[in-house]
Request: fold
Amino acid sequence: MSIFKKKDLPYDLSNFTILIVEDSEHMQNLMASMLKVFGVGEILACANGTEAMDLLTVLQASRKSKYLTSVDIVLMDWLMPKGNGEQLLDWIRKSEKDAIRFLPVIVVSGYTTEYIAAKARDMGANETLVKPISGTNLAGRICSVIDHPRPFIKSSDFFGPDRRRHNVAYEGRERRSTPAEEVKVKTNG
Reply:
C-alpha cells in the first residue's frame, strides 16, 4: 500500500519530466518507482554526469520538436565515475542555454556531509537530500523546488538560486565589491 493516495497529491506532475543521474541501477530504480507513485509523467535516467550532459544537449538542440521533451528537474548523485555531480552541476550552471542553466537541481547523495552540502549549494544546487531516501523526503524536496522557487543570482563567482532562504534585511557592512544581479529566465513570448 502506498503512503501517497491519488487524492492526497497536491500537484499534477503528469507533464513533468525528471532526469535521474545516478550510477547505481538499484537507486535509479528506487527513485524512478517513487516518482511514478508521485505521478511524474516522464522519467529519464543516466548513469553518470557525462551521459546527462549529452542527453541535455540533445534535448536542448531539439526543443522545437513536439516529439522530444525538456527536463523540468534533475535529481543527481554527487559521487559518480565518468562525470561526477560537481562536474555536471558546474556544466549546468555555466551553460549558455537558459533551458539548461536554470534547471532545478536536487543533489541526492549518500555522502552528503556538511562540506558536500555547502559545496553543492555554493555551486548552484537548489536542494540536497541524504541517502537512504524516503518517498516523503524526496517529495518534500520536489515540492520545495515547486513551491519556493528562489530567484537566480549572478555575481562574479556564482550563478544559481539565491542561497539565502529567508528574506531578512542584512544590517552589516556590504562586502561585495560589485552588487549581485538577479537574473530572469528569458521567455519566447
Q: What stands out?
A: The chain has one domain: 10-183.
